[in-house]
Write a structure and sequence with these properties.
Layout: H1 14-17, H2 25-50, H3 54-70, H4 90-111, H5 114-131
Length: 132
């Protein structure tokens, strides 16, 4: 009564065909953690432009090395920040950095990356002290 289906269903997933690239959970967490740390590095660089200090310089270098480690040796792109474009408040920058460090800490803990977790916790503490 019914004719059998002779073609592939339009509802079959791309994963069935083997054409879709797959990443492991660890690779996805590496990408996510590198993104959070790179964003934290960008905010740290903004803070360094507004309030230069040795502690922010050290933090920026540590963040850059962690991002490079997670990206397979590729150093993060760092732009010089022009303070004339916008004048964000220092408190707002510290709050943003604190939030980004918190996100990085959650992903680092999920990934069991001790070095990144320690760095993120240190940055959270430093930005919480300044913003408070």
């Amino acid at each position: 009564m019914y004719e059998p289906i002779r073609t592939k269903s339009v509802h079959s997933t791309a994963a069935d065909s083997g054409e879709f690239p797959h990443r492991s959970r660890e690779e996805e967490l590496d990408i996510q953690l590198a993104g959070h740390l790179a964003a934290l590095l960008a905010v740290t660089d903004e803070l360094r432009q507004l309030v230069p200090g040795a502690d922010l310089d050290e933090a920026a270098e540590a963040l850059a090395s962690q991002v490079a480690r997670l990206r397979g040796g590729l150093m993060p792109v760092r732009a010089s920040v022009a303070a004339a474009i916008h004048e964000p408040g220092l408190d707002a920058l510290h709050q943003r950095a604190h939030a980004l460090a918190g996100r990085a800490l959650v992903v680092a803990a999920s990934r069991a990356d001790t070095a990144a977790a320690i760095l993120a916790a240190q940055r959270m503490e430093a930005h919480a002290l300044v913003a408070a």
